[in-house]
Fold this protein.
Amino acid sequence: MLGNFQQSNLRIAVGVGETTIRESLVKTDKLRQWLMPQTLSSDLPDTLESGLTFTSSLGFVTIEHKVEIVNQNSLRLLLSQGIDGYHEWVWGDGWVQSRLEGISLLPLKLGQTFSLLKFRQFLLSHEQHKTLQE
């Protein structure tokens, strides 16, 4: 793989419960919503599970993801093609942490920061919508 070894570890407050965070990371319909305009494989099951392999694309860059671990408070994806490494998510009530390591020509920290902020916005708008319906 060509590129530079990069690593980034970001943690932010999101103001929602761990169940909402988990569903937004492992339920593919929600994952598709907040990852837009990035696209995911069309044949994904409703929920990510260990051993599942899928691709995501943004423009001409394709990344293959293999779900290594998925449980109540963490998700770990092994990455190949556009990024050779891993992406790990850990969460709890009101916070989420993203750790990304890999070799790539892409600016990983910039992309990770943008994705995390977009994820937080999705969670907050989802929570507001839920509150309005109650």
Remarks:
- Residues 12 and 95 are 6 Å apart (CA to CA).
- The domain at 4-133 is CATH 3.30.530.20 (Alpha-D-Glucose-1,6-Bisphosphate; Chain A, domain 4).
- The beta strands are 4-13, 39-40, 53-58, 61-70, 74-81, 84-92, 95-104.
